[in-house]
Amino acid sequence: MPADERFAVRRESARASVPRPLTAAPAPAGVPLPPGLALRGRLATGARRPETPHGSGRGGSGSRTPRTGRGGGPRRAYERARRAWDRPLTAYYVILGSSLLITVLGLVMVYSASMIKALDISKPATYFFGKQFLAAVIGGGLMLIAARMPVKLHRALAYPILMVTVFLMVLVQVPGIGMSVNGNQNWLYLGGPFQLQPSEFGKLALILWGADLLARKQDKRLLTQWKHMLVPLVPVAFMLLGLIMLGGDMGTAIILTAILFGLLWLAGAPTRLFAGVLGFAAVLAFLLITTSPNRMSRLACMGVSEPDPEGGCWQAAHGIYALASGGWFGSGLGASVEKWGQLPEPHTDFIFAITGEELGLAGTLSVLALFAALGYAGIRVAGRTEDPFVRYAAGGVTTWITAQAVINIGAVLGLLPIAGVPLPLFSYGGSALLPTMFAVGLMIAFAREDPAAKTALAMRKPGVRWKTMRRRVKKRSSGER
Fold this sequence. Notes:
By secondary structure, the chain is mainly α. Helix content is 64%, strand content 3%. The chain has 19 helices and 3 strands. It has helices spanning 3-17, 35-44, 72-85, 90-120, 127-148, 151-156, 158-172, 198-219, 226-230, 233-246, 250-266, 271-290, 293-300, 314-324, 351-384, 388-412, 430-448, 451-459, 462-472; strands at residues 178-181, 184-191, 194-196. Strands 1-2-3 form a 3-stranded antiparallel sheet, with helices on one face. Helix 4 runs antiparallel to helix 15, helix 8 runs antiparallel to helix 16 (388-412) and helix 10 runs antiparallel to helix 11 (250-266). The protein is globular and about 135 Å long.
């Protein structure tokens, strides 16, 4: 057989030995094919699979069914809020932002609440506002200084601040030097329209000195003994309380007592010891209240809705009138009626009532929310630190601001006796504003001292970020674009 014929025979035999793809026979009309056979038929005839969009395969985003649960949206928002709150700089920004907002809103309300009072004493309408604005500027400088100071310097200033404060509080009781305002001998005359109340600085002095004392004793493991926990903290606090009570300022004494209890609680005082100190303070407060007709009259004004026919409880009743007439959104800024001589002290102790009358429930709830945010951020700073001094100092400042706000607002609402304490950062009074803003700067410094916050702040500096970006960019050859 010729070679060409042999080659042709082999080629035909090779073709016959190759297995052919199975094809599905055409199904009779109305009879469906099995799924597998139909798929093999389509593949054999060259039919192409429909293209699926990118990511719709197994594990892609298209295969995920949308969540249809009721709590999908709120839960997602809650998770975002929780992650935002857990960021290192959250406490830093919350303390800074809430304190500045309270101060600015306080300046606005001081101007609105005090203009009639200023005109009544033949002064310009901006008289009290100008003094408060000057105190806010000085307090802002103190807050900035305190926020930039290291923790070691704060501890070093504890004893000097305490000694200077005690000296000024003793000086108040010297005849001819100390001044009496509204029956309280707690003021020093500085010249011109300026006065100073040293007892307001006693709160800051007790916090710094008490935090340093407890931190040193904790380092030496002495706080397990009750005598080291009480001495000399409680005697020094009672000395400050005695100097304050000599002037008759019961409200400041209550705040100082709350700070003392806060420090003892943070130090881990046993329940029996804590209850003993609390019981002694309660008995002392009972004696001081019952022996003073003025304090007894304030206690009797709790919950009143109308003043007595003889004029008693006038301030408490008109504070309720101001809040009740505000409604949801108030009568408008500057449109208060109670500040026209009906409500005593509208720009100091009862400025919250004027806020409720002019800004309504929305304004008062905003103020409460700002104080709640400031207090919660202070608790976070105190709870996340490993430094005992920072924990005691931050806890003491938080106790101070929170307790004073609760006492002031509770008195305006008629839930607590009128203690005569201003609303922190909000009411008129430079002597109260300066140490409070320094204390806020103290908490800002503590929030900055957190290691994670330090790293985050360092990354926000322009030079550091530029260097970091330069390290991340790979070097390219001269001819590469």
